[in-house]
Design goal:
The chain has 187 residues and is α/β, with parallel strands linked by helices. It has a domain of 128 residues: Rossmann fold (3-Layer(aba) Sandwich), CATH 3.40.50.150. It is 36% helix and 25% strand. It is built from 6 helices and 7 strands. The protein has a 7-stranded mixed beta sheet with strand order 3-2-1-4-5-7-6, with helices on both faces. Strand 1, helix 2 and strand 2 form a beta-alpha-beta unit. The protein is globular.
Length: 187
């Protein structure tokens, strides 16, 4: 199972119709759409997509418009802004997802960086409902991505074991393969 399929497996098994999900780095919009299809039912549930790049917001908006009925589209809010920190006006969420790195097919100089990702993750801890999950897709295949992955894994390992459960899913035979970090808010 590839890393994206694994992340979506966790998301689908965690989310219920009516839940609130946040895609903190919506990029091309595929994860935002998946979250919407998973938790938007019968006018219940909310999905928020955040990205610093207008191109990413536009791509996500087009994907949502093409694939969701109007009643569900109105339950998706896209925010053109940095993910660091997450906006304090967001409601508490059942799931907050990150797919770090850069927007595929765009300017690779615009990417997530460990300082802003840590600020965002710190704020995500405050926006999470008890029992909620934070999902972080890490890409250590290039120098900056490796540094970001190591920084985030070190940060996560310092979280309280009583309050947060961690699982890190990776391919042990390749240090450059993407990996998935799951943080569960226990209380």
């Amino acid at each position: 199972m590839d890393h994206i399929s694994l992340a979506r497996y966790f998301w689908k098994n965690h989310l219920k119709p009516g839940d609130i999900a946040v895609d903190a780095t919506c990029g091309a919009g595929n994860d935002t759409l998946f979250l919407a299809e998973t938790c938007l039912r019968d006018q219940a549930g909310l999905v928020y997509g955040i990205d610093i790049q207008k191109e990413a917001i536009d791509r996500t908006e087009a994907l949502i418009s093409e694939n969701l009925p109007p009643a569900h589209r109105s339950r998706v809010t896209l925010l053109h802004m940095s993910h660091a920190p997450l906006p304090s006006q967001l409601p508490l969420a059942n799931l907050i997802v990150y797919n770090l790195g850069y927007l595929p097919g765009s300017d690779k100089s615009i990417k997530t960086l460990s300082p802003t990702s840590i600020v965002s993750l710190e704020s995500a801890l405050k926006r999470l409902l008890p029992g909620g999950l934070i999902s972080v897709m890490l890409y250590p295949g290039h120098h900056e991505g490796l540094f970001e992955a190591q920084t985030i894994l070190n940060w996560a390992s310092a979280l309280s074991n009583e309050t947060y459960g961690l699982s890190h899913h990776y391919r042990p035979n390749s240090s450059k393969s993407p990996s998935l970090l799951i943080i569960k808010y226990r209380t």
